[in-house]
C-alpha cells in the first residue's frame, strides 16, 4: 500500500497524531476494518500498530537512528529491534527467522541475515542496462555473496561479526541499551554541542561507520557476555 493510499484512508484527526520539533508522527493500525483505518486483507486476523515519523529535513542516518532508539525504543522497551534500509525487501519469513534464532540463543545480542543484490535487466525508465552497468552489478552481487558465505559465516563461528549491516540487522534491546547505544550515537550532530571540540579527526573517523562501532560495543559491554551470529536462511 502506497503512502497516499493509507493517508487518504485515515480520517483528518488520525492523519497527524502529534508534532515534535517539526517532525510529524503518525499512528495507525494496519489490518483493522474500522472506518478510517488502513485495510489490508493480509493482516485482517492480526492487526499491526504502526508508528511512522516523517522527517522534513535530512539530518543524516544517525539522527534517524537516534529518533528510533532514544525516542520509540526507550519508551516502548522492546525485546528486539530491527533495522532495515528503505528499499530493502526481506523474504516473508526472514525477520521471524532471526527473531526465533535469538529467542533460542539468549546470548546472541545482534544478528544479521544475507543481503542479496537484485540484478536488473531494465532501469526504472524502461531503458536497457548497458554492458558496463551490468558488469558493475554482477561484481557487486559476487562481492556480497563472498562477504556473506565466507566472511560472515566464519566470523559467526567465533561469535563476532565485524559489521552488522544497517540495511538488515536485528539487535536485542537489553544488549545495546546503555553504553553500546551511546557510542553508536556519538556521530550524531545534535548529540554534542560541538563535536569538533571533543573529537579529533582520528577519533571522529571511527564513528563514520556506526554499525562497526555497535559490533565492538556489544562484545565489550561491561558485565555482559553477548555474541553475534549470521543467519544464512534470512534473506533480504
TrEMBL record:
<dbReference type="GO" id="GO:0006031">
    <property type="term" value="P:chitin biosynthetic process"/>
</dbReference>
<keyword id="KW-0808">Transferase</keyword>
<protein>
    <recommendedName>
        <fullName>chitin synthase</fullName>
        <ecNumber>2.4.1.16</ecNumber>
    </recommendedName>
</protein>
<dbReference type="GO" id="GO:0005886">
    <property type="term" value="C:plasma membrane"/>
</dbReference>
<keyword id="KW-0328">Glycosyltransferase</keyword>
<keyword id="KW-0472">Membrane</keyword>
<dbReference type="GO" id="GO:0071555">
    <property type="term" value="P:cell wall organization"/>
</dbReference>
<dbReference type="Pfam" id="PF01644">
    <property type="entry name" value="Chitin_synth_1"/>
</dbReference>
<keyword id="KW-1003">Cell membrane</keyword>
<keyword id="KW-0812">Transmembrane</keyword>
<dbReference type="GO" id="GO:0004100">
    <property type="term" value="F:chitin synthase activity"/>
</dbReference>
<dbReference type="InterPro" id="IPR004835">
    <property type="entry name" value="Chitin_synth"/>
</dbReference>
<keyword id="KW-0961">Cell wall biogenesis/degradation</keyword>
Amino acid at each position: 500500500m502506497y503512502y497516499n493510499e493509507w493517508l487518504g484512508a485515515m480520517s483528518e484527526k488520525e492523519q497527524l497524531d502529534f508534532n515534535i520539533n517539526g517532525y510529524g508522527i503518525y499512528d495507525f493500525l494496519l489490518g483493522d476494518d474500522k472506518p478510517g483505518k488502513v485495510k489490508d486483507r493480509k493482516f485482517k486476523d492480526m492487526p499491526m500498530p504502526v508508528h511512522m515519523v516523517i522527517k522534513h529535513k535530512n539530518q543524516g542516518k544517525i539522527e534517524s537512528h537516534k529518533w528510533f532508539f532514544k525516542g520509540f525504543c526507550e519508551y516502548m522497551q522492546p525485546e528486539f529491534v530491527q533495522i532495515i534500509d528503505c528499499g530493502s525487501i526481506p523474504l516473508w519469513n526472514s525477520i521471524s527467522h532471526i527473531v526465533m534464532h535469538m529467542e533460542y540463543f539468549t546470548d546472541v545480542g545482534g544478528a544479521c541475515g544475507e543481503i542479496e543484490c537484485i540484478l536488473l535487466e531494465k532501469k526504472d525508465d524502461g531503458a536497457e542496462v548497458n554492458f558496463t552497468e551490468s558488469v558493475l552489478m554482477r561484481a557487486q552481487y559476487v562481492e556480497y555473496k563472498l562477504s556473506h558465505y565466507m566472511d560472515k559465516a566464519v566470523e559467526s563461528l567465533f561469535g563476532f561479526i565485524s559489521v552488522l549491516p544497517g540495511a538488515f540487522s536485528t539487535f536485542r534491546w537489553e544488549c545495546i541499551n546503555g553504553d553500546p547505544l551511546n557510542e553508536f550515537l556519538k556521530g550524531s550532530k545534535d548529540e554534542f554541542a560541538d563535536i569538533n571540540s571533543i573529537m579529533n579527526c582520528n577519533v571522529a573517523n571511527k564513528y563514520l561507520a556506526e554499525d562497526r562501532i555497535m559490533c565492538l560495543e556489544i562484545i565489550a559491554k561491561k558485565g555482559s557476555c553477548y555474541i553475534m551470529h549470521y543467519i544464512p536462511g534470512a534473506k533480504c
